[in-house]
Specification:
Layout lengths: L1 E7 L2 E11 L2 E6 L2 E6 L33 E4 L4 E6 L6 E2 L4 E7 L2 E6 L4 E6 L6 E2 L4 E5 L1
Antiparallel strand pairs: 1-2, 2-3, 3-4, 5-12, 6-8, 6-11, 7-10, 8-9, 10-12
């Protein structure tokens, strides 16, 4: 098959590779035949494997502090305000519909997490909001 010439410690060697099957190579060194078993080669993938590390910040719960006097309703995701279902001064109960937020072509109902009175509306219909933007305030 192939022939190589090596020099080790001032000694010359002619190596002829006769055959190869899997990891066994039959070769001839200066006229003497040898069967050599090659170690398995670890093949590396051409495509790197991407590993995402876990977030260092714990997830922030969306629940409000029940002891707080003022509650801010924030956008859970970026989107567009489709409809406002309350006005300033309205008294609401827990799970009442406050507004509809369109995000990723889906309508998301934003509901009250606790009872109270609407003190401020910070958005209007058609307005784009970013995640965590304050939309409503209630007491």
């Amino acid at each position: 098959m192939k022939s190589y010439k090596f020099k080790v410690n001032e000694n010359g060697y002619t190596v002829n590779i006769k055959s190869q099957e899997d990891n066994v190579i039959n070769l001839e060194v200066n006229g003497t035949s040898f069967d050599v078993i090659m170690k398995k080669e670890i093949k590396q993938s051409k495509t790197p494997t991407l590993v995402r590390s876990a977030s260092k910040q714990p997830a922030v719960p969306l629940k409000v502090n029940p002891k707080s006097t003022t509650t801010k309703i924030v956008a859970p995701i970026p989107g567009v305000i489709l409809a406002l279902k309350v006005n300033v001064g309205d008294t609401i109960k827990e799970n009442d519909l406050l507004l509809v937020l369109e995000a990723m072509k889906m309508e998301n109902n934003i509901v009250a997490e606790k009872s109270g009175v609407i003190t401020a509306i910070k958005v209007e219909v058609g307005q784009q909001v970013l995640q965590d933007a304050v939309m409503l305030e209630l007491e």
